[in-house]
Amino acid sequence: METNTSASAHEHRSQARKATASGWIGSALEYYDFFIYAQAAALIFPQLFFPSGNPKIAIVASLATYGVGYVARPIGAIVLGHWGDTHGRKNVLLLCMFLMGISTMAVGFLPTYHSVGMLAPTLLVILRLIQGFAVAGEISGASSMILEHAPFGRRGYYASFTLQGVQAGQILAAAVFLPLAYFMSESTFNSWGWRIPFLLSAFVLVAGYIIRREVHETPAFAKEEVSGNVPKSPIIEAFRYNWGDMLRVVGCALMNVIPVVATIFGAAYAVQASYGIGFSKSVYLWIPVIGNIVAVLVIPIVGNLSDRIGRRLPIIVGALGAGLLSFGYLYAISIKNVPLAIVMSILMWGIVYQGYNAIFPSFFPELFPTRSRVSAMAIGQNIGTTITALLPALFAYVAPPGSNNIPLTIGTITFGITVIAAVTAWSARENYRVKLSDLGQPNAVPIDKQSYEALRAETMAQAKKAVA
């Protein structure tokens, strides 16, 4: 009996590690696809896919295609969330990955505006819509899978690796562009060099499939399936019983304004000649790379901290702090100070923003029951991120090339949005000491602090013993 129990515990720890690795690598690979588009939309697409007669219109239109991908995300959240709650977390993650990989590769084959006119941006928008649809189920599916495999008392730590993978994907996206922008002449890069990162998605797709097929379905979903409790319409259940927490997820997800400012509008502001700042593409690409490297190191530390003190406080501090630092980051770009821009990027995005970014993969799914967890989180999160993804075009409109006080204008909007996210987090329940089976119940009683700490210490001791 003891041997069976020990074997079961070992298998549980093994699956927790595999689920975490799958979530990390899968998110990294999918968001590599998603963010190479973001880099290209800021750095090169205005010249390739839109009329060159009016630089302002070209920049706004290119950044708008970035936002278009988010328009499809609520639709993807509904479809893929339903799939994840009715067919399993593993199945939906594989589906997301194939849709993302194929649509990203296709961007690398697109003709430009100079070749086919308006057909070029039309095809670009269609592929971006498919990308947005596909990525809508990634974070909610991966976070739910890891959370449901994770040991009690360590959900925040394990789930944080989902977002560590996302940040790694952003590093990879920028890192692929760096040598191309540095070693290629501008004419060569504009002609065909920009296509290489998109075509490399073929390798991304194969690697992601090999990794994700090894993970078992989560015990929580399997239990629902065996007992016949899988809902026919998890979305209806989510709106009927959890609409308040779904609105909280929408409000908190507005924190996506920080990476939007850092990587999308910040890139256009720094690089596009019409703004007059003059950062070179190769120099500016190092700013998000360095910020993300720091984030990769910080995320598991913050995730672990949330298992000790709760989820809400780090999110509130991260929201308000990052919003304030956006003023300094944009100011550093405006005065053409590359070292200061890098430092502010590290503080705003690499460190302080992780108070939210590292924790929402556990904070969001903990608000919902197993039956509708993927749907509820996916819909709420993707509505919030869709709102913020429309901001680059708005920013370029309210602070176009030639306007004054760009750091103050954009910084004020950014800080106002992060205040909304902080207040929303404050209004939510604290669930880090609630058992997995009780999550999503408004009247769920958390385990008392002393018992929780004892269970958490036991879990950590077993993990250390297994490693030894």
From TrEMBL:
Entry's transmembrane regions: 21-45, 57-80, 92-110, 116-136, 157-180, 192-211, 249-271, 283-303, 315-334, 340-364, 376-399, 405-426
Primary location class: membrane
Keyword Transmembrane helix: yes
Gene Ontology molecular function terms on file: transmembrane transporter activity
Domain Major facilitator superfamily (MFS) profile: 19-433
Subcellular location: Cell membrane
GO cellular component: plasma membrane
Origin: domain of life: Bacteria
Keywords: Cell membrane, Membrane, Transmembrane, Transmembrane helix, Transport
InterPro entries cross-referenced by the UniProt entry: MFS, MFS_dom, MFS_trans_sf, Sugar_transporter_CS
A Pfam family that the UniProt record links to this protein: MFS_1
Membrane topology of the entry: Multi-pass membrane protein
PROSITE patterns for this protein: MFS, SUGAR_TRANSPORT_1
Stored PANTHER family: SHIKIMATE TRANSPORTER
Protein name (record): MHS family MFS transporter
The species this protein was found in: Paraburkholderia panacisoli
Lineage start: Bacteria, Pseudomonadati, Pseudomonadota, Betaproteobacteria, Burkholderiales
